[in-house]
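DUF5580 domain-containing protein
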Amino acid sequence: MEKHKTQFEQADYQLILNKLITILNNEQCDEIIKYAVNQDPDDTGTFGFDQMINLINQLTGKENALTTHELGTLARHYGVRPSKEINLEILLGIAQQTLRRKAFEDFSSLMNACRQQDADKTGEMDRHAIRRICLAHHLPLPDDMLNSLMNCLVNQNNLIQYEQFINQLNWKNYEIKELSIQQSLDYIENMNIDWLPISKGDMPKSIHLSKKSKIDKINYKQLINDLFMKDLFHSSID
């Protein structure tokens, strides 16, 4: 059933694209590119859904305007969603921001506790032992973030180099560059964490809910290339 659904959506997208192509003329090309680039000052290759509607309306005029369903189909095809993969640098940056806002500075106690349990002085510990130490010292990170961090750092023997782990959380001595608001918003949406309490100085909470991400970014370069059937930006499209 899902396979048929995908086939129908692909067919719908092709029909809509063909409909637009029949309306286009080459004289509109420069105007369309100029509009799109002006909406994207940071050259991300994307712009918003509303900008896509404006661009399409410039092409079609009122007499050939697309329906809401047709616009939605194009948006789904050319939409860009945040990556679901764990980006360790961003995750560590968010963790450091959380610890800084909660004024947690006792990294030396975490380190000493790990060293005490590391009787053989290997520099490595079981992830569950590290988690227990973090909880015992009231490290103010939600459980799923802590687990995600350890998932990124655990080795094939299910052990973690605890000095590296603690130092990467240490915002005082090993601060990671500040993240942009958009980076944080895009990333934590996929972490299923409620970060609003942080802005109020409260503890972040895991909400354990899957949220279907809306499409608010459109790959306009691919859309325009497909409309004019050639690479107009002379660059690779992600």
